[in-house]
Each structure stands twice: as C-alpha cells, then as structure tokens.
Amino acid sequence: VTEPEFVDLLRALPLAQGAGGLADDAATLHIGGETLVLTHDSIAEGVHYRAGTDPADIAWKLVAVNLSDLAAKGAVPIGVLIGATLIDGGERFVAGLREVLEAYSVPLFGGDTIALPKGAPAVFGCTAIGRASHWPVPVRSGARPGDGLWLCGELGAAMLGYEGSAGHLHAYLRPRPLLAEGIALAPHVHAMMDVSDGLLLDAARMAAASGCTIDIAAEAVPVSGSDRDRAMRWGDDYALLLAAPDGFEPPVPASRIGRVLPQGAEPLLVDGAAPTGPLGYQHG
Amino acid sequence: VTEPEFVDLLRALPLAQGAGGLADDAATLHIGGETLVLTHDSIAEGVHYRAGTDPADIAWKLVAVNLSDLAAKGAVPIGVLIGATLIDGGERFVAGLREVLEAYSVPLFGGDTIALPKGAPAVFGCTAIGRASHWPVPVRSGARPGDGLWLCGELGAAMLGYEGSAGHLHAYLRPRPLLAEGIALAPHVHAMMDVSDGLLLDAARMAAASGCTIDIAAEAVPVSGSDRDRAMRWGDDYALLLAAPDGFEPPVPASRIGRVLPQGAEPLLVDGAAPTGPLGYQHG
After folding, report:
1. Mutate to test the interface with B, among A45, A109, A194 (most CBs of B within 10 A)
2. Chain A residue closest to B41 (CA)?
3. What is the pTM of this model?
4. Stretch B191-197: mean pLDDT
C-alpha cells in the first residue's frame, strides 16, 4: 500500500477523540482541565537527512520538526520522548539534543535506543508533548472564504542550504520552530499549520481540509534567493501558514500572501491559475 | 558509544521532573491534578522480530510492549502514537493494530509513516500514554529489605514459541500486557517493573536501582516447559516483577519467587548464589 492508502487504513481504526481524524499534524488530549497537544514524527537517514550528516544536526532537526508541529498549534512544549538508533557519533547526537532542548527550554521525558544491523539506515523518532495556550487549538481545516492567507517566516533558505549555499546551510540543518510566533498567532487564526512539505502542497492541503480554494499571490511570498517558484515547493523552512479573518493585524511579523475563496474547481491557485508540476515533497 | 554509555549521556541532559533520571521504563507528568504515564519503545526487523513476520504480529507486539510498560506503572491506557515504516503488507500491519487496540480499548492519537530505502530493515516506534490509577506510581527503585519478591505471569512460553513449539508460538508473537493486573497490584507494591529482558537481568536491575540484593528461589518461579534456567533469562513473556512488604496478599494471581535482602556483594542471588552467564537480553 502507498502512504496515502496506509493512512486511510489507519483512519478506520479506533481513533482518540482528539485525533482529528488523523487529518492534522498533532492530536489533542483534554485532561484535568488542561489540553495537551501530542505529535510524533520520525526522520531517517537517506530520506530526511543525508548520510554523513553530523549527528548533532540530526538530533536538532528531529526535535525541531516536532516542536514546529507544536508551534502550529500554539502549544508550549512540556517535553519530548526520543527513539534513537545507536550510531557512530552518538555523543554528537546527544550534544545536538542538548542544544535544541536548551534552545527551546524543553526537557527530556525518556525514550529508547535500538541497535540496528550494521549498514542499516538509522531511524529516529520523537514524540513532543505540549500544553495548549489557546482553545480551540488551531487546525488546518478552519480556513473560511474571505480569510486572508498569511505566512510567518520565510521560504527558500533551507533549499539554498541543501543545494550548497554555505550561507544558508544552517537554515537547512537547524530549522527554527516558530514556537513564540505560534503562541502569539493562535488566538487570532481560523486555521494554522507548519509548512513542512512545501508551501503549495501544504496550502492545497489546508484548502482541501477546509473545503475552500486558496489563491496565493506569488510576488507576496517572502523568499530567500531568486527562485521563487521552487522555493514555494520546498518545505524545510518550517514557516507557519495561517488563515485569518479580514482585518487581522498580525501580532508578530507575518506576510499576507493570498486569500481564501469559496471552493472552486481547484483547491489551489497561484495568481489565479492552477499550478502545474509537483507542489512539494510527496511522501510514499 | 555503547547503549549504556549513550543512555548515560542522555541522563546528563535537561530531564523532565517525571523522567526519574531515565532509570525507569516510563515517565510521569503531572497535569491538571492528574498524573500521566508516558513511555516509548521501538522495535526493528531482525532485532526485535524476524524478517518475514506477519505484519499483524509486528503491530501487536509494538503496542503490547508499550502497554506492558504502562501495566508496570498501574496505568490505564489513554492512547498511542505510532511511527511506522511503509512495508509490504501494510494492510496486515493495520489489521494487527486494530486487534491490539481493540483488545485493550486503546485509541490511536496519531503518528507518522516513513518510506525507507528498499531492503532497509523496518523500524516501528510507539508512544503510549496512560493515566496513573494510583499515586505514587510504582518504580523499579522502591524494593526494600524484608520485601517479598513476586511474579505475576509465567515465564518460558515465549521462548518455546520462538524456538519452534507451535503451541507456544502465540505467546511469543502476541504478548499480553498485564494491564488489569498492574492496576490491581499498584497500590500494594514497593517496586514494580515488567520482565522484558529476562527475569534475572530485570531483577538485578531492580536490586541495583533499589540498593538491595534480591534472592530468587528458582523452584518457585512459574515456568512453561522444563528449562527453568533458560526461561529465567528470557524476556518476551512480559510478566510483572514486584516487591511487596511482608504479609502482602496478591489481589490477582501471583507467585512469591524470592525475597529482598540488604545490599550485599552481589545484586542478585539465585538460591543464595550469584548466577553465572548472561542474565538476559543485553542491549547494545
């Protein structure tokens, strides 16, 4: 089965009330008057990072991509659990883990380690747990016709770093989860998600989940470098994409990059026309 | 670095208050007047299960070993997050996931899927979240001299199944987390853990964590089959090991298999003498 088919099968399982039909990047759990936000993402050698990557950068990215999912929910991180493969350079992995945990004041709850056969690609998992700062927790399905579409953060730097620009390497290796920004934005948005697979792909997902069409004004998208079209299909910058009602004044720097329309024939338009080619990083 | 060295490095990171110094199989999180229990365990092809295993059995085992960690804490499962590799037979994986989730009334919160390069060993992670049924939550470090040592469940069936006994194959492939038993026992014990790496190894760990010596009476250990010595070094039965004060009357079937002594030269004795050879499944 392909990844979409697999996820469809998972959707038919007994789901937690806060699982949101597995349509979102994180789940919620109400307990004792609080709301927790739960998310789990794995990264694998040769898939999400290149063989030979400094293990400290692997650890940073592993935690950062999970914290980015909390950021999109306006959640305050409480802690993480880590599933780690034993690798050469394990001490560098722990050093990077320390850096990212200290940078965002997130403690470690626990986890486990596995020793894979020699030569097997390493796989790392992370579960991040946060406390919702605002109720309702933003979802990707809440965009409404008439909303403005906004982006907090820039696109393209990670792509440039991946492709060899020394000045942008850090952006690729060490993404910054926009936690403070997500907390500030959460009370004001109708929908929010992080851009992890490409702006066009993730915007199309927001549109589909919301039953709307999203029209992006390409020139308004904040991009590093000159290749705007490719930068809009690249995900590793972990910007926040949000839909907010007319009159929204962003409490943190953000760019208005488009608008939400009633559902049309296409979920996504760029400057009024359906984009062609791959919209972003497609799994499976 | 070896697994013990890696875990020692992790212990020096910023740890959550409920992480228990990473000395236990699960962490606790107090929130809104409740106590959550959090645990994460991964399993990998060729390490924790054999290549060619029915993916339904992989899914069962993945969830069951995590629920067993909740059982040892007397926790009531709230839900799980799953990190899954896309494999041939993904629909069988989901079928087994349904079976284990339904068997223990545990819903799915979410998770993620990764597509590994062809031929790479599959890796699956699970984070299980439970609600503590009793405070304090049992730890492995609470055994005290004078306590009786008890085992809830039997040993050896998984070993026989692994080694080809058709009548015991189910015990190996589909371990039963002793959730109800753990909840019943939690209010009465000084220490509790599940036997996942071998009774002798896990008892030695309980002794070391508790600053005691544990003396096991081999003849009292409930074992399937005739190879008592090897069964005591085999972990896949997921029995519960507990230390309870003198006069303890188990609320569920359990066998008194030894006693807790003041710390001596050896953490573990079997019939009064230090056992030789590997005590169980040593990681890393």
Report:
1. A109
2. A112
3. 0.96
4. 97
Q: Which residues of A touch B2 (CB under 8 A)?
A: 86
Query: For testing the chain A interface, which of B93, B94, B135 should be mutated: the one with the most A CBs within 10 Å?
Result: B94
| Per-residue confidence band for B284, with pLDDT thresholds at 50, 70 and 90 | very low
End-to-end CA distance of chain B: 9
Report CB contact under 8 Å: B110, A79. Answer: no
Is residue B283 scored above 80 in pLDDT? no
- How far does A247 lie from chain B, in Å, by closest CA? 34
Average the pLDDT over B214-229 and give the result.
Answer: 97
pLDDT at residue B133 tops 60 = yes
The total number of residues written for chain A in this structure: 284
Helix (H, G, I), strand (E, B) or coil at B203: helix
Low-confidence ranges of chain A (pLDDT < 50): 283-284
Question: Which pLDDT score, from 0 to 100, does residue A282 have?
Answer: 64
* Residues A233-272 as b or e (16 or more Cβ within 10 Å = b): bbbbbbbbbbbbeeebebeeebbebbbbbeeeeebbbbee
What number is the ipTM of this complex?
A: 0.95
Q: How far apart, in whole angstroms, are the C-alpha atoms of residue A60 and residue B164?
A: 44
Residues of A with CB below 8 A from B63's CB?
none
How is the beta sheet containing B108-114 ordered, strand by strand? Answer: B27-31, B34-44, B123-132, B75-85, B108-114
- Is A90 in contact with B1 (Cβ distance < 8 A)? yes
Nearest residue on chain A to B82, alpha-carbon basis: A40
Q: What does the pLDDT look like over B78-123, one tens digit per residue?
A: 999 999 999 999 999 999 999 999 999 999 999 999 999 999 999 9
Cα nearest neighbour of B90 on chain A: A1
As beta bridge partners, residue B36 has B29, B131
**Pick from B14, B47, B83: CB nearest A115:** B47
Find the mean pLDDT for residues B158-182.
96
Spatial contact of B52 and B88, defined as CB atoms under 8 Å apart = no
Q: Cis peptide leading into A177, omega within 30 of 0?
A: no
Residues of A in contact with B36 (CB under 8 A): 31, 36
The dihedral built from the CA positions of residue A38, B99, B43 and A110, taken in this order, carries a sign that is positive
Please enumerate in sequence order all residues whose Cβ is within 8 A of that of A151, keeping only pairs 6 or more positions apart, or say none.
Answer: A195, A199, A221, A222, A239, A240, A241, A242, A254, A255, A257
